[in-house]
């Protein structure tokens, strides 16, 4: 059971909500499992070997709408470690964990699930807003495709671009882990032995991509710091 990820777009654009420039990222994923199986796995995916950064998950509310859709809101607690080059610009007592809000709506008739997530802590430093759509794959009704969009912003003067580059690199790594986590949970649900060799290969590639992006972010941060002293 292999999960495929395909990047569609990376761009700088103006956020409709705040009017500030943000880093926009879009990618498509494919899980070779049915939509119903993926929806079940979505609620059972923690814990798994690829989600060690997820500390807690709590349901804030849940309801079934008159149109028979399931609406939920959850509060997730995740670890949040900043890179060393960013530490001089952060509060000394900054918490090492972050709180994430996750809204979701499942439409069993249309066979779609949409999720919206955003961080409510450290939001001034960096805000990551994500929207995912899960639906049946058009070419194979037994598979599920995922369209994922993210908007990464920062309000730190002189460092916003570097922080956005760092956030983008971290988000890409997170996407890989999320898909591998899905793959792991789905394999267990179907009575298969989860394979970690595929995940290790994908993770290694993600690390290489993330490392290149981090180096770029360091350069941008260094340039911003020099401008402050000019």
From TrEMBL:
Annotated organism of origin: Gasterosteus aculeatus aculeatus
PROSITE patterns in the record: PRELI_MSF1 (PS50904)
Gene Ontology CC: mitochondrial intermembrane space
Segments forming domain PRELI/MSF1: 22-194
Region Disordered, annotated ranges: 195-214
Protein name as it appears in the record: PRELI domain containing 1a
InterPro entries associated with the record: PRELI/MSF1_dom, Slowmo/Ups
Comp. bias intervals (Basic and acidic residues): 202-214
């Amino acid at each position: 059971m292999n999960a495929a990820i395909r990047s569609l777009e990376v761009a700088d654009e103006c956020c409709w909500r705040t009017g500030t420039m943000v880093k926009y990222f879009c990618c498509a994923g494919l899980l070779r499992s049915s939509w119903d199986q993926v929806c079940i796995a979505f609620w059972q995916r923690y814990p798994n070997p690829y989600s060690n950064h997820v500390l807690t998950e709590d349901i804030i509310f849940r309801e079934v709408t008159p149109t028979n859709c399931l609406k939920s809101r959850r509060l997730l607690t995740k670890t949040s470690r900043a890179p060393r080059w960013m530490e001089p610009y952060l509060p000394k007592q900054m918490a090492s964990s972050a709180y994430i809000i996750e809204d979701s709506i499942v439409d069993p008739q249309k066979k779609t699930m949409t999720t919206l997530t955003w961080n409510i802590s450290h939001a001034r430093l960096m805000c990551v807003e994500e929207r995912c759509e899960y639906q049946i794959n058009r070419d194979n009704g037994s598979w599920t495709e995922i369209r994922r969009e993210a908007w990464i912003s920062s309000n730190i003067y002189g460092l916003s671009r570097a922080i956005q580059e760092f956030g983008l690199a971290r988000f890409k790594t997170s996407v890989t882990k999320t898909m591998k986590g899905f793959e792991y949970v789905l394999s267990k649900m179907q009575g298969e032995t989860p394979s970690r060799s595929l995940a290790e290969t994908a993770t290694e590639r993600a690390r290489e991509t993330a490392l290149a992006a981090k180096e770029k972010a360091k350069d941008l941060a260094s340039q911003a710091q020099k401008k402050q002293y000019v």
